[in-house]
């Protein structure tokens, strides 16, 4: 393949574009992970992550992709044959449910149509019916990356409380952490699962478990076999800034820089930026006359938007044309949605003009692919950004 000039547009919903500052931070000689300098780094990233998860409890860091942190959450908290209540929000919720089955758990999967988040009422009803308290955990994916639909995590917590049920609450924030507001402690989550390659702007390779005191207590009795994933060994070493086995040192340099960048911008500003880009993207999709997968506006994702293709048009053909002509990667439709949707990632290190470049690529690609759309997407998105900036300007002037 010949060289392509300019920067590739990596607009899949993760891995996301890694900013130069983070690339430079990673490009530094690996240090002795048992030496004194490492302990400073270890403590700094472990503390910084707590602020991102919004927890005072421990956060465990694994040298693994997000799938590893899913497994860690299950094997630390649960025992063979335990019932877990899961919700079919899409491809990733389905993969997590399959993992639970393989690990010897007994997942009960509430069926969904892949266009809505976990329904707090359905969860409450199921938990109320569980008179013997057999369900040991409720597992929800905060941001279903295959559909661009979020689940209302705080409302699911209320549903668990309303049913007065003792189940642990496990939440996957792999594609929402650092992009969409999330509060581990306030929302009463027991294990939050995160990953490095999305809102945290890092390459793939790190994943996380934020762990509540209740989950730690459950782990002391839980009997699924575990070794590499064991929280106890991690937390014991982490107290002094170290890890029980060789950590991904260079990714931790990157993590330190990522945490600095999120704090310099301010988490609330980061979330507002993601919302602005998500709203502009939805307006663009509507401007093309296409439908968004997410049905309920309260569940729209701020980190990605999935758009449905018109009947008779294949999303992967569109993606191929866009990649070939404009060097722009979009997310593919996964399993049930294969060929039917394309996903625009607007998370991580991203700004207004990068979004407009992305949307321009999609709009031109739709035309080149012969998809019958209106050419209003980019214009609507620009209008949306102008409105957002002038509203913010007016608000500052009034203050
Ligand atoms: C919501 C969600 N959960 C889990 C995963 C699996 O993570 P990984 O591919 O890093 O193992 C992903 C990956 O994209 C995801 O988006």
* Helix and strand pattern: EHHEHEHEHEEEHEEEHHHHEEHEEHH
Question: Rough shape?
Answer: globular
Strand content: 5-15%
Stretches with pLDDT under 50, minimum 5 residues = none
Our measurement of the CA-to-CA distance between the termini, rounded to an integer number of angstroms, reads 54 Å
Multimer state:
single chain
Fraction of residues in H or I helices: 40-55%
The structural class is alpha/beta
- What ligand molecules are bound, each kind once? pyridoxal-5'-phosphate
Radius of gyration: 21 Å
Describe it:
There is one protein chain. The protein has 13 helices and 14 strands. The protein has 399 residues and is an alpha/beta fold. Strands 2-10-9-8-5-3-4 form a 7-stranded mixed beta sheet, sandwiched between helices. Strands 11-12-14 form a 3-stranded antiparallel beta sheet. It has a two-stranded parallel ribbon with strand order 1-13. Helix 4 links the parallel strand 3 and strand 4. Helix 1 (20-26) runs antiparallel to helix 9 and helix 10 (267-287) runs antiparallel to helix 13 (377-398). The longest helix has 22 residues, at 377-398. The termini are far apart. The structure holds pyridoxal-5'-phosphate.
């Amino acid at each position: 393949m010949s060289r392509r000039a300019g920067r590739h547009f990596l607009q899949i919903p993760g891995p996301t574009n890694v900013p130069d500052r983070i690339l430079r931070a990673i490009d530094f000689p690996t240090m002795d992970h048992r030496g004194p300098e490492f302990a400073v780094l270890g403590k700094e990233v472990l503390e910084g992550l707590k602020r991102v998860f919004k927890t005072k409890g421990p956060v465990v860091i694994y040298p693994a992709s997000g799938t590893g942190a899913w497994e860690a959450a299950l094997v630390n908290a649960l025992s063979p044959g335990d019932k877990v209540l899961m919700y079919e929000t899409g491809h990733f919720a389905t993969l997590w449910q399959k993992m639970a089955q393989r690990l010897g758990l007994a997942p009960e999967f509430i069926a969904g149509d892949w266009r809505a988040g976990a329904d707090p009422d359905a969860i409450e009803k199921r938990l109320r019916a569980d008179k013997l308290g057999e369900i040991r955990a409720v597992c929800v994916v905060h941001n279903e990356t295959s559909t661009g639909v979020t689940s209302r995590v705080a409302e699911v917590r209320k549903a668990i409380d309303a049913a007065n049920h003792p189940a642990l609450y496990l939440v996957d924030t792999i594609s929402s952490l650092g992009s969409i507001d999330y509060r581990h402690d306030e929302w009463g989550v027991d294990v939050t699962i995160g990953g490095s390659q999305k809102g945290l702007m890092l390459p793939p390779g790190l994943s996380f478990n934020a762990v509540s005191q209740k989950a730690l207590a459950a782990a002391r009795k839980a009997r699924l076999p575990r070794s590499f994933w064991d929280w106890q060994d991690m937390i014991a070493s982490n107290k002094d800034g170290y890890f029980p086995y060789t950590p991904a040192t260079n990714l931790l340099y990157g993590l330190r820089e990522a945490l600095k960048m999120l704090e310099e911008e301010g988490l609330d500003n980061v979330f507002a930026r993601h919302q602005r880009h998500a709203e502009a993207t939805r307006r663009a999709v509507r401007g093309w006359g296409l439908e968004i997968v997410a049905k309920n506006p309260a569940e729209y994702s701020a980190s990605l938007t999935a758009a449905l293709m018109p009947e008779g048009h294949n999303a992967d053909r569109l993606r191929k044309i866009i990649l070939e002509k404009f060097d722009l990667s979009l997310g593919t439709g996964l399993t049930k949605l294969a060929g039917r949707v394309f996903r625009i990632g607007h998370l991580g290190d991203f700004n207004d003009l990068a979004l407009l470049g992305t949307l321009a690529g999609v709009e031109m690609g739709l035309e080149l692919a012969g998809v019958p759309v209106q050419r209003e997407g980019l214009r609507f998105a620009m209008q949306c950004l102008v409105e957002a900036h002038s509203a913010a300007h007016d608000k500052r002037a009034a203050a």
